[in-house]
Amino acid sequence: MTDKLSVSLVTPTYNERQNVFLLAEEIFGLLADCDDIDLELIIVDDNSPDGTGEAADALKERFPVRVVHRAGKLGLGSAVMEGWKQSDRPYLGVIDADLSHDPAILAGLVRGLREHDLTMGSRFGETSEVEKWALHRKMISVVGVGLARLVTGAEDPLSGYFFLRREVIEGDFSLTSSGYKILLEILVKGRYTSHTSTPFVFRNRQFSDSKLNWREHVLFLKQILLFGGRRLLGRRPGS
User: Strand 118-122 relative to strand 195-199: parallel, antiparallel, unpaired?
Assistant: First the structure.
């Protein structure tokens, strides 16, 4: 019998009250028949004024959910790392709470960790689809992904939907990015030998607004310059 994959999936939240129940219901509904996957959902809430934290606490009665309450908006990167610190499981993941990341591929991403160190949902695969993608957002993403590919070699290195083995971020690894492109930093600084990408439908968010702003784009450009410099100095991704 195949050993179970024990996974902690982190979702950072800020004003996602209407989404957290739908997310948990969809994830655990799809995993109900997956006897080889033991997954807990860790919700890290940054003191959402809409009551997301309280709504997340209520989920614990129905689902294997843990909730981390933080004092305020401290950044997505730090929320992910805080969630992972709460876990002692060997496999870790990240998913957005706004329902844009389709859980239909979640089991496949988790199972991919049997053979790979990193598995990523990709918006740019042959069968990928992005619903209602505004032209300006698409252009920004295409340019950003193109730059990040030069540094990492991954198909969608700016994806916010991914899983990894804990060893990838163990040791002296530290995540310096507080922004939305934490996978890029993990691909550059983490310890891994192989990764794989899975196409998925990037769905239109339901009951929340995008958290991206000009500061996040400036932060991304700084990351590209920094990580590009690392590569020029001979430090390859995964080394």
Answer: parallel
